[in-house]
Model the fold of this input.
Amino acid sequence: GSDKGSGDSGGSSGGVDNVTVGVIPIIDVAPIYLGQSKGFFKTRNIELKMEAGQGGAAIVPGVVSNQFQFGFSNLTSLMIAQTKNVPIKAVAAGVSTTGVQGKDFGAVVVKGASPIKTAKDLAGKKISVNTLKNIGDTVTRESVRVAGGDPSKIEFVEMPFPNMPVALDKGDIDAAWVVEPQLSTIKAAGGREVASTFVDTDPKLTIAAYFTSQKLLADKPDLVKRFTEAMNESLTYADAHPDEVRQILSTYTKIDDKARAQVVLPKWPIEINKASVQKLAELGTTDGIFASAPDLDKLLP
Amino acid sequence: MTTAHRGNPVLLGSAGLAGLLLIVELLPRLGLVNERYLPPTSRIAAALADEAATATFWQSLGDTLYAWAIGLLIAVVAGVLAGLVIGSVPVLRALTASTVEFLRPIPSVALIPLAVLLYGTELGSTLILVCYAAFWQVLVQVLYGVADVDPVAEETARSYRFSTWGRVRHVLWPTALPYVFTGVRLAASVALVLAVTAELVIGAPGLGKEIATAQNSDAVATMYALIVVTGALGVVINLLTRTGERRLLAWHQSIRGEVAV
Amino acid sequence: MLEVKGLRKVYSSGNREVEALRDLTFTVDNGDLVCLVGPSGCGKTTLLRCISGLLTPTGGSVKVNGNAVTGPPPGMAVVFQEYGRSLFPWASVWDNVELPLKQKKVPKARRTQLVEEALDAVGLTGTGKAYPWQLSGGMQQRVAIARAVAYEPETLLMDEPFAAVDAQTRADLEDLVRSLWQRLKVTVLFVTHDIDEAVYLGRRVVMLSSSPTVVQDELVVDLPAERDQLHTRADPKFVALRTRVYEQIQLAKKEAAVQR
Amino acid sequence: MLEVKGLRKVYSSGNREVEALRDLTFTVDNGDLVCLVGPSGCGKTTLLRCISGLLTPTGGSVKVNGNAVTGPPPGMAVVFQEYGRSLFPWASVWDNVELPLKQKKVPKARRTQLVEEALDAVGLTGTGKAYPWQLSGGMQQRVAIARAVAYEPETLLMDEPFAAVDAQTRADLEDLVRSLWQRLKVTVLFVTHDIDEAVYLGRRVVMLSSSPTVVQDELVVDLPAERDQLHTRADPKFVALRTRVYEQIQLAKKEAAVQR
Amino acid sequence: MVVLKRILFVLGLPAVLFAGWFFLSEGSESFYSPPLRTILTAFGDTWKPDRLLADVVPSLLRLFAGFLLASLIGIALGVAIGLNRNLRAVMEPVLEFFRAIPPPVLVPVIMLFAGIGDGMKVIVIVFGCVWPVLLNTVEGVRAVDSVVLDTARAYGLTGPARLTRVILPSASPRIAAGLRQALSIAIILMVISEMFASSNGLGFTIVQFQRSFAIPEMWSGIILLGLLGFALSLLFRLAERRALRWYEGLRAAQRRAG
Ligand SMILES: Nc1ncnc2c1ncn2[C@@H]1O[C@H](COP(=O)(O)OP(=O)(O)OP(=O)(O)O)[C@@H](O)[C@H]1O
Ligand SMILES: Nc1ncnc2c1ncn2[C@@H]1O[C@H](COP(=O)(O)OP(=O)(O)OP(=O)(O)O)[C@@H](O)[C@H]1O
Ligand SMILES: O=[N+]([O-])[O-]
Ligand SMILES: [Mg+2]
Ligand SMILES: [Mg+2]
Done:
């Protein structure tokens, strides 16, 4: 790696490790920002710096090449990487579902006047997800399946979350699989939730995780250990202090004040719920997202 | 020559921009588009004022401009040099033609993983993408410019035994200069586009990252405000290159018409 | 010495093939002043281009002082028929004249002197700052002549250099060429379509036939070296010579007409 | 009738201001043939461009049949001094000549006839398919002339149209212009720097002074309407006329020199 | 002999570069830059006819539609702007404004008006690649030789004839330069447009490979993209040669020198 900047894991001065974490600037990663401001990392001799990327495309190569020491990604992407033998390993939980029907931070929504009333009605419809062949279509299919519909007939189209309210409004799509804050936006405009997809899949579903490279794990097990500890402390703190979470959002997102007060916050347990991930793995394999079944023992801590 | 009445270009240009602002104000106001997706000019302006009050905004603007300027400089210098050399040596031109055509359409965005691999989200990543995309713009224009040299002018130089450098400096360069300017103007905005796109996709600091954040946060007016800033940068950049062009190309047919009676 | 031997040039672009020169042979001694006349389109420009090394002949050879010409030989200046396009539109009149001198690495002070003198000589004093496209046709042509004059060449090739100037200026320029030739001992090859001019200027006149082109005739102008516009042109010898040239060219044209 | 009244033209581009024409007044009757002579750079081209409506004068007026000229009047053909640049390089010789006729909506058959005749008349039979840049300088100039001739204009403006052709061709073209004029009753304004040509061709000669330009003198050429190259030029009246023109131009130049 | 030389010229440098890449990457351990051997194997396995039909053909259709539209708009607008000084003054800042906006951030706005179908993607392509055509046309029109213009005026070549017989031919070398540049930008934008709201296409497939960590397949896609660009530019060159025969002749005529 380069010697300039904080990107180097070797960049420790006076016992302090400079660590760069690749994150997506969304609500899910609030704990790491909160933990940073609370000093949970500093006390463990970690000088933290966040780099914002648009999803795994930029973050995973960054972690593999040690430009980032840690990254944030959803578990389906991590499992895809694992099946392709990308040398990475999860080190801490990222974000989990609230487990409450109708009150989760991600859901499938339709327009108020839509004839679609339940998840079952989604069969054969056009539904937008942010990334095709990823967690969005897996959990949406599961919701339909659970509701007794035929998930094989759904037409998924890909589009960024921010575009979904428009597309739904204009009728370009029949339903949208969205997360906060767009979920609140659509609901505020009269949209209706028809499936709490994460909850339908598993009420304890772990959706994303923090991960590092196999190499860093081998070279600096101590650093990884300290990061995991700090991360866990941050997650716990965030879970317990929703008001502070809503506050910290203003520092790294541009969600306006009203929306910040209203969005549904996810859960941040420190445990990666292995059973739920296993379910996600099986569903993904059924749907053909994975070439081979992911080896969770290799991926999860 | 009898031309239509000539207005003040600055006034006319401002009128054009004002017209655009008015349209954007009216479209949502008249209900032609939903104002949640395209807010009226006034709301965008308000969001812009809010942004301008933050330090992050100015920091991002600076980051974008820095990446743009460095990237463009490298691309222009490399493009012009390569163009002059390749263009004036027929064998080189023949040898490289296929490779140029092969490399040129590879989108910078397809190189993102490679850039991240090498530089993470540092400036270097943005630079790779900016340089790669802007370089071709300049190169191709210079190649066409070199091909446009008037044979009689070229022969005049040859008959007076101008050195190779003399021919490049006094014949090739002035002929290619109008093309170089078009190339630079194309490259300047492509560089800006790529700088912002790279920031948007990779997350390197800059306006693009702010736009991405605004998009993810559903801050529609803020997103448009930042887009407006990007566009305004383009207008300013064009103004600068135009001024340089008018100065250096006073002799050229295209400019002559403007200055002469 | 300039030797042209069996020169042949065929232009072939696309479907059109034109044999511009068929078989030209003649020599020009160092320090000689030779005028070339011939009907329009007979290949005079082509010949000059071959001699100046700007065009590769299809056959035959051109030698300057024994060396085969493959590119523009040193010390040669050319005034092109397309004067308008041979001036650099991006450079001022002054720069147009000075540029070749810079290339020749003439020192600054000398350069200034040469440019000034040359512009004076062609009657363009004070137009140095103008761009070529701000000048009249005749003035542009004179800039091209000034450029060649300032260059102080050993060999000077001129392709209908006075076509665009008025009679009076033309007479002045003719005298300029002769004085230059006498003063600097420069070898001059001068293309013109004006028979009087050819006879008045030249020490020798080479007449070309119509296309396909060969040397139709050659004559030595045995007029006194000191010539002036009034007396020389009135000289019966002058009149006899110009008549001979005129007849030859008529003949050339007729032959061409018969061949067709 | 063509009326030029108090015509003035000042070029001002950037820092340079040139008063090309100061105050020109003269008229050309319909069906007249007027030659314009004057020193190089005196503003002949400028004048022609003002008359053809291509250049807006700084002062004064140009009227054709009583109508002020603001753009090119219909039925006018112009042969430009910069013949090389006035031909369209992307069109063949034939197309260059035919294009204005198409624009005039001349029927196809007639067009073909006109183009053929015009190319024949200027001695370019069979070059229709070539591109202009495949021709010699003189041939290019003749294409430009053919284009004007084929157009069958009411008014014909020609700016040094024979500068690049050889003496013989020139004589032929002079006769072509005269026969055209007589046959078609076309009004001709002919710029030349060749005094003999002006007197041989014109029914009237207008002489311009050096810059800043006014009409220096005007004379009616009272030679018989039937002229031929041999006898007319030998006519003592011809010689007297040409001497008068020559003197006037000399005078113009001297005055200019004094003014400086 | 001549043909052999041409082939050598066309394939020489690429062959050397590929050979260099092949040997230098041999035995590469890096996950993201696998050996060329692996990539080439992936190329053969990936780009089977049915895949080409499913992914490359829709891409190409959108590409052609976008390029064609951009050419028409660019030339029409460019001629108008190039000929009219006032129009140019009014339009220039607005056009420069839009030119500086990255197509990816405009996608939401374009989706607003054009939905998410092929229309949106074509518009993205048009939006991105119209600029070189426009700029070059404007410059080409402005640079038409003054004597040529005067000649046209004097002979009453006005209106459509002036446009088609004088302005456009004269500006055509520059317009060609613009079109050529637009073509490769169109390919780039074809890819970018398929990164949003798409479910097929070459760009979509490459991004999909990248996301699913199928790195050799991703590289094979990039190579295919290059090949595509190369093939299209060859086609373009052929067309250009035909249309600009006079120009090439004009320039080459006197260049056949020593
Ligand atoms: N680039 C070219 N391509 C094809 N043919 C050409 C080219 N240049 C000249 N020719 C042809 O070659 C012949 C001789 O042309 P050249 O210009 O040498 O004549 P010239 O004697 O200089 O005539 P002029 O006195 O009219 O200038 C002409 O028939 C012309 O058409
Ligand atoms: N575009 C221009 N810009 C500035 N000055 C010009 C321009 N065109 C011509 N002039 C000037 O106007 C004067 C007259 O030029 P013009 O071309 O009319 O002369 P002319 O009589 O045709 O000369 P010639 O016989 O040499 O062709 C000259 O001094 C010239 O420098
Ligand atoms: O190279 N581009 O991705 O525009
Ligand atoms: Mg010639
Ligand atoms: Mg003139």
Summary: The pocket of adenosine-5'-triphosphate (ligand 1) is lined by residues C 11, 13, 18, 20, 38, 40-46, 81, 193, 211; D 134-139, 164; E 253-254 (CB under 6 Å). Chain E has one domain: 51-243. Chain E touches chain A through 22 residues (CB under 8 Å).
